[in-house]
């Protein structure tokens, strides 16, 4: 067996390869572009392209592609081979700086939310040198941003990079005020923990709902679910272990820092967490991770389900976005420091996040809004749809003391004076492991837990970065004008706490009482579904903030609004159609066959003589026949709702009808079918049942 350290990153054109293959001057100007965002000239690009191609060809690559993240939420690629004919009838392998920097895929079939009229369907891709190129299969993949010819972002990477830049600009202003003139740039880092389910491929193929929609639309509760809590951190079964081993190897070759793996709460559910990296790289890596997870599963006769709620009645899958801000000098700005000066700086950045989360609760909620994730949020297995923040008792006590000019520790009478007192040490234990909070401080980072397992992490981080940039901007505006920095700082922090402490909640987020308190007493937002929240993307305050920091233009926001709602509607429409199809062609016929057998048995028994009791068959026949009637009626209703929804022209209205009509009718239909499933002989049921799917991988 090869050692991991020998093959880690072997498929990545990383710093080691660049250093080894690029002329010194080319390497140093490329590094400047990567680290400080300096412009790259074409001479350098040509040299990089040649080195990249030679390296890729030596690894067996024949093609290259600009690899990008359109608004579909998955990645896109269009392969071109390196071959160029040579005069002697052969070919040579070529790749120019121009091809590296810019590509022109036909963009007309990607969603643009009306951004791009079809007559100017072309978009272009632009190389993002901050994320390393890599080889997948036989193709050199070059991470790129994707824009329209008018310069509007048609992807998730462009606004993510812009949001990182916005935060960088404002954080630097604040650091300068603290007298720090050495830091050149500030970046955010993310470690996304990814949950997923593994099911047997043969069983999966027998279920149209899984194949078409990624989740089960029917399924009676199995006798055993997750109630024993025996899966969480349990021994990993051999087939799953083999899968994980293979997956790690593939990820490591791509330089992805896959670190921990364990079983999750639900049967068949697992998690993979990487070591954190720069947000942009973490986003690319998470997209790749999701793709490789599915590919490797296929090799093992499995299917990896990334849907947020593949099974009703057991936990769904999310993604925890561990997020922090750090400087190029290696300081984590969300880590409490050793000195009073560092502490004051930490508290200001902490307050910036508190203010950001409170001011832009809606944007955070919107950033995770999909039809799939709506099933999870607020279902007592994931954070509620109400955004709040967990700081832990100790840090909350510190903040409270600052707010009230009160001693932090009554016994020692230590007053929390900023820039004077030293903060107590927050160990991991005192920052707790509250799993019910949507946004938790965990010692030196925040964990945003509302993301769905299939979400691109770009969206959440765009909003988070932008909102924190806005807090920092407001702080810098005030402090730059203040005569006494320390006093100004103290005042600012106190004001922030007074105004925004309503967002801090250290209790149980799954508690009904909390939702009541949050919405009624504290006035926090509670947008239960995608249909309820996405419209607020266009609220004046949100448009103003996002455009001022140049994260989105107004047109881009409008397009995202359209696409998110369109996607929501389409997802549910497909689910509804799949349900109708499954009921008519599989479920109803199966129940019919079983009732026919029951009827036959009953009449056979009756023909033998009146002494033979048939009450069992009769009762079941009555019950199942009733259910078939009901099934057929509910299917008709759903079909009617489907056709009336598809006649609605406005996406806002359509999404409301989807929520209020379709989803309601779908769950009614499901209830009838699940009841029938529980009463129908197994051999008649047309596809694998919950118990088989959830416990079928050994
Ligand atoms: P858990 O939450 O499971 O107890 P950890 O807190 O150690 O585990 O890490 C969870 C994730 O957070 C990992 O992906 C880890 O790399 C990431 N992480 C740790 N420190 C930071 C940081 N400063 N910034 C961003 N992510 C971080
Ligand atoms: Mg975690």
Describe the structure.
- This protein is α+β, with helices and mostly antiparallel strands and 698 residues long.
- It has 3 domains: 152 residues, Ubiquitin-like (UB roll), CATH 3.10.20; 384 residues, 2-Layer Sandwich (Creatine Kinase, Chain A, domain 2), CATH 3.30.590.10; 128 residues, Four Helix Bundle (Hemerythrin (Met), subunit A) (Up-down Bundle).
- It is 49% helix and 13% strand.
- The chain has 23 helices and 19 strands.
- The strands form 4 sheets. Strands 9, 10, 11, 12, 13, 14, 15, 18 and 19 form a 9-stranded mixed β-sheet that branches. Strands 1, 2, 5, 6, 7 and 8 form a 6-stranded mixed β-sheet that branches.
- Strand 3 and strand 4 form a beta hairpin.
- The longest helix is centred in the last third of the chain and has 55 residues.
- It is globular.
- The site of magnesium ion (MG) has 3 residues, from loops.
Helix and strand topology:
Elements: H1 4-7, H2 15-21, H3 24-36, H4 42-58, E1 63-67, E2 80-81, E3 83-85, E4 91-93, H5 97-101, E5 102-103, E6 123-127, E7 134-136, E8 139-148, H6 157-177, E9 186-200, H7 201-205, H8 208-213, H9 238-253, E10 258-263, E11 269-274, E12 277-278, H10 279-299, E13 302-305, E14 318-327, H11 340-359, H12 361-367, H13 371-374, E15 389-390, H14 393-403, E16 407-409, E17 414-415, E18 439-441, E19 446-452, H15 457-481, H16 485-500, H17 512-521, H18 530-533, H19 540-548, H20 554-608, H21 615-645, H22 651-679, H23 690-695
Helix pairs in contact: 3-4, 6-15, 9-10, 11-15, 11-16, 12-15, 14-16, 15-16, 20-21, 20-22, 21-22
The structure holds adenosine-5'-diphosphate and magnesium ion.
